[in-house]
Amino acid sequence: DAHAVADAAGALAAVAERDGHGVLRVTTQAGAWIAPPHRAVWIPARTAHREETFGKATLSSLYFADTLCNALPKTCVVFDVPPLLRELILAAAEYSVLDARIPTQERFARVIVDRLALLEPVHAQALPMPRDRRARAIAARLQEDPANSESLAQLSRRAGASIRTTQRLFLSETGLNFVQWRQRLRLLTAVERLGSGASVTSAAFDAGYASVSAFVSAFRREFGVTPGRFGP
After folding, report:
1. What is the pLDDT of residues 182-194, one digit of tens each?
2. pTM to 2 decimal places
């Protein structure tokens, strides 16, 4: 269930449905953002992106005019959606279009935007991509196979970079050192697997962890909950 979305005229917030167990991934040139059912992805206007769902997810997508979005982030972010906001999003999605000429609908849209503006981004569910071609080649290789066991030295050599250069590029261009970036990739891969219905054990091994206990421990440190929170 994947589709490409070209530059949007407005901004999009997407969240899995009330009873869904799937996961949404939004990808841009700058990185990827992963959202299970209780979270949403904010995508600024005119951001070329791709949306993919994993598992039994149905999206509720809302588009907002630029004039409403001044207080919202200028880059993609994941939000933890409180119950009130989730219900507002689901209710708004039942309209084909909210008509600003109708006062009640115009106020409804502004309430949603106001609630979004109060939220703090969930950085742990964003995977920023490096821009340098060498670091990006390493990132792409690991994205293709998150369980890849090659060392940093091996990956750097393949990409034509030194270990020190790779470490510098990942930290300066993603805000994460290489070890942190690789772990973030593996954990977000596991979130997608869990959202697709995989067991905790399968998700752990698919993501490259040698043991379930190590996976559960890393998952809890990163997300503050156990892997079962993200599964069906």
Report:
1. 999 999 999 999 9
2. 0.84
